[in-house]
Each structure stands twice: as C-alpha cells, then as structure tokens.
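Appendix B. One record, verbatim.
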Amino acid sequence: MPYGTEPIKHLTSEECWALLTANTLGRLALAAGGQLDIFPINYHADGKTLLFRTAPGTKLAELTANDQVVVEIDHYSPVDAWSVVLKGTASELQMEKEITEADKAPLEPWAPTLKYRFVRITPTEVTGRYFERAEEPERF
C-alpha cells in the first residue's frame, strides 16, 4: 500500500477484503458464559464471508451460546503494519449442500487432527487501518 501524508490510514471495505482474501491466519474472539476467549484460526475468505474448520469443543460450544464474534488479522514489518477487524455472526454449516460446497474451499487444518465442522462468519462490520512505521515525533 502506498504511503500517504498521514501515518495512519483507515482502509476501505475493498482494501480490507483484499487483505482478508490474501491471508489465511487470524484470531477469533468470542464470549460465552461471561468469559472471553480468543483462538488462532486458519480461514478462507471469499470476499463476502469467512469460513473456518474446527472440531467439536470449546469454539463450537461457545458459538451455540453466543454467535457474535470478532476476527482480527494483521501484519508487521520494519516499514509498515496493518490490521483488519471483522465483526459478525458465526453459524455452523448444517445442510449437506453447504458442507459439500465448503469442503471445496482451499482450507486445510494446520495440525494433523480431524476438523470436519465448518463455521461461516457473516460480517456486520469490516474495518482496517494501515500504519506507516517511522520514528516517534518529538514530544516537546
């Protein structure tokens, strides 16, 4: 991304989706039972939604209690950094047609475990910021 005149740039929705689709690792934050949790996930973005695979366990159990989630992806280098936050509603795919279609996505578990449950996140908000890295300005 080109530098502008400001060190922080708010990304457009299109820029956020470009970053989401070009990456596959994020952090999923959710809440259930009065507790907050965060999980690393690998995902597939199709430009409209995010899809991830999981096994039965904490994530699925918590999503049945509260389907509101947040996903963050980010990048850092010596010259720049960016962060994209997607807020939305998560739902486990139940219909055979949906699962068959989701199974075609380029989405493989990173760990050698069975992750045969698919969860789709439908966004309600996608925001992002791009940061130019440089020395801190003089304070006084």
